[in-house]
Amino acid sequence: MLQGKKAIITGADQGLGKEIAKEFLKQGASVCICSRNEERLLKAAKELEGYRKSDTQRVIFQKADVGITEDVDVLYDFVLQEFGTLDCVVNNAGIQGPIGDTTEVLWQGIEDVVRINLLGTLYSMRKAVAIFRAQKKEGRIINLSGGGATGPRENFMGYAIAKTGVVRATETMAKETEKDGIYINAIAPGAMNTRMLEEMLEAGEEALGKKAYEQALRQRETGGTAPDKAARLAAYLASERSGEISGRLISALWDGWEDFDTHAEEIANSDIYTLRRIVPKDRGLSWE
Question: Average pLDDT per run of 10 along the chain, which is 288 residues long?
């Protein structure tokens, strides 16, 4: 449970970000949501008010583009002014970027997706860690990773390298803060039917490639992964129940995270749920 916690959730005017905000409110937290679209942000904040469990909970919002450092500075200043403290940050905001052959898509598009998805997440982590250290109390950060982070994803170069970078940034910052009582993890939410899926279908088979296009069509028809799975995982990682688990990429769909608290020491002493290189001896091969 997140009773009395204060959280920032970026990119929460729609989709998964809004689902995470709903789950946090259901579990007793107050939330600040942000996005680049003020109209959608206002509408989402009004909807989220209906998920408060008590009058002490608050829903506040601030327009911010996480790819602009000045906007992130304003966001964090606003939250501290309104809440007086901060317990958790969910870095969910992101864009899909250009779809197509890397040599043909606009270079600016690749730069934009890296700036927003990777550098925006990293800068937000820097701000959060500085605040948690100044408060001298536990803090938790949840970053959204996903497609392309655990394997090549052709025709999505910008998105894939940005999301892979988010995982390594998560692992690295977790190492830097392991003595501070700050726990940082990344989530792979699964293939959800969001605006990004519609962008893929609009791009068409030529840009995506035949296999990816057919997968996108099947996903739209079958409904995709329900966003509540990732929302519940985010709430779990934001709570004390997740203990000292940190520096991990966790699949909302496949990783059995509901029982992680009973395996915390085992997880901490292994490289499970991390980016790593498999060497020959890991596969029982003889040349190493």
Answer: 96 95 98 96 97 96 97 98 98 92 95 97 98 96 87 87 96 96 93 64 69 68 76 96 94 86 82 82 62
Predicted TM-score (pTM) of the model is 0.90
Catalytic center residues:
159
Cα–Cα dist 61/68, whole Å:
17
Question: Count of alpha carbons within 13 Å of 255, Cβ hemisphere only?
Answer: 21
The CATH number given to 6-188+226-254 is 3.40.50.720
Q: Please provide the DSSP assignment of the chain as one string.
A: --TT-EEEEES-SSHHHHHHHHHHHHTT-EEEEEES-HHHHHHHHHHHGGG-SSTT--EEEEE--TTSHHHHHHHHHHHHHHHS---EEEE--------S-TTTS-HHHHHHHIIIIIIHHHHHHHHHHHHHHHHTS-EEEEEE--TTSSS--TT-HHHHHHHHHHHHHHHHHHHHTTTTTEEEEEEE---B-SHHHHHHHHHHHHHH-HHHHHHHHHHHHH-BS-HHHHHHHHHHHHSGGGTT--S-EEETTTS-GGGGGGSHHHHHTS-TTS--PPPGGGGT-S--
Q: How far apart are CA 288 and CA 286, in angstroms?
A: 6
Instruction: Give the model's pLDDT for residue 286.
Output: 60
